[in-house]
Amino acid sequence: xxxxxxxxxxxxxxxxxxxxxxxxxxxxxxxxxxxxxxxxxxxxxxxxxxxxxxxxxxxxxxxxxxxxxxxxxxxxxxxxxxxxxxxxxxxxxxxxxxxxxxxxxxxxxxxxxxxxxxxxxxxxxxxxxxxxxxxxxxxxxxxxxxxxxxxxxxxxxxxxxxxxxxxxxxxxxxxxxxxxxxxxxxxxxxxxxxxxxxxxxxxxxxxxxxxxxxxxxxxxxxxxxxxxxxxxxxxxxxxxxxxxxxxxxxxxxxxxxxxxxxxxxxxxxxxxxxx
Length: 275
Fold this sequence. Notes:
Blueprint: E1 2-9, E2 12-18, H1 26-37, E3 42-48, E4 55-61, E5 67-68, H2 72-86, E6 90-95, E7 98-104, E8 108-112, E9 134-136, E10 139-146, E11 150-155, H3 164-172, E12 182-188, E13 194-200, E14 205-207, H4 211-223, E15 233-236, E16 242-245, E17 252-256, E18 258-265
Parallel strand pairs: 2-3, 4-6, 11-12, 13-15
Antiparallel strand pairs: 1-2, 1-18, 3-4, 4-5, 6-7, 7-8, 8-17, 9-10, 10-11, 12-13, 13-14, 15-16, 16-17
């Protein structure tokens, strides 16, 4: 049996596992954990406590068994887990998208998210020029940006009017995105911020929150001229408000994290028989 700790960041749920424990098939383990616990992914963390501040190699395995290079809310939960374990208030996370510094306080975690990428080769998106404000797959205002993972951000009048599970797959699997894309819809909230909903690649459905999606909304809004300069902005998915601060050239994502429960799961879960 393998111990896990379940955390969530604004409703984005993760099971965290110490990578020192041997899991022979991480994809099978994550598929079972996500189905059993109802979480959005499993974070395997390899802690390197000899460093100051402590470091951890973070690997996110999603419900379909795939890995994601970066996850903003996952990184915030991972930082909280490491900080509590190592009695630290700063943590360095080594992700597939690069090393990210996180600051942990009593209620919130702030993680550096890197610089958003609009270059077509970096998203990636099949286009000779950056895709900004384009009409694509039934959405009229789509911007393609990589915030650790690729996002197609569509600005709409009202996020609640979008049938996301029905409408997003065409954009998520569009030929323009050779590696697929997360689909994030956003609308102004009337107070200078944005509301957000995200259909996540690898989850293949809507999640209550998406940190890379919140950063993508802020980055796309700035690119579209919807923000004034390097202004911090509140982006609110269904699970709760997140703060995105692009100042100083280092985008930072801030929000709460919560430890929900702990338990054990089989290291070698039985696979369901083929239908």
